[in-house]
Amino acid sequence: MGASLMFACSLLIAPMAHGAPQTCSVEKLQGRYVFTGQGTNYHYGAFDFDGAGKFSGKQTSLRHAIVQRETLNGTYTIDKDCTGTITLQGQPGGTAHWDVFLTDDGKKGRMIRTDSGIQGVRTFEQ
Predict the structure, then answer these.
(1) pLDDT of the residue at 110
(2) Whole-angstrom distance, CA of residue 24 vs CA of residue 117
């Protein structure tokens, strides 16, 4: 009986040893998300993700007490663990690179800018 119990327990534990199935991919990030962001400036706007690795959007920014409106576009990757990257064009200063972190359901996320010498964070949600 002891060996049978140990075998049954090993069947229950084995699936947990491999971890939970990962659920994220570029398809997880699809549709409109509103965002707020700050670093040395403030940004409010919306991204429209296509579920295939591209996005567009608009933002209003406050830079040095001057309001600017910008059209955004770029590309993104999402890994199985719900992390990824965003490459953003359309801001003054050129291309911006970000690391992104999604919730498992893909409805909310956080971004941090990875370009050397430039700080910025954004939060977004559907």
Answers:
(1) 98
(2) 30
The pTM of the full predicted model, rounded to 2 decimals, is 0.79
**What's the chain's Rg over C-alpha atoms?**
20
Cα→Cα distances 48→68, 94, 113, Å: 20, 20, 19
pLDDT digits (tens, 9 = 90+) for 23-63: 899 999 999 999 999 988 999 999 999 999 999 999 999 98
We find that the CATH architecture of domain 22-125 is Beta Barrel (2.40)
Residues 6+ apart with CB under 8 A from 30: 49, 50, 51, 106
Q: Report the C-alpha gap between 5 and 63 in whole angstroms.
A: 66
Residues facing 31 on adjacent strands: 49
| Domain locations along the chain | 22-125
Residues β-bridged to residue 109: 102, 124
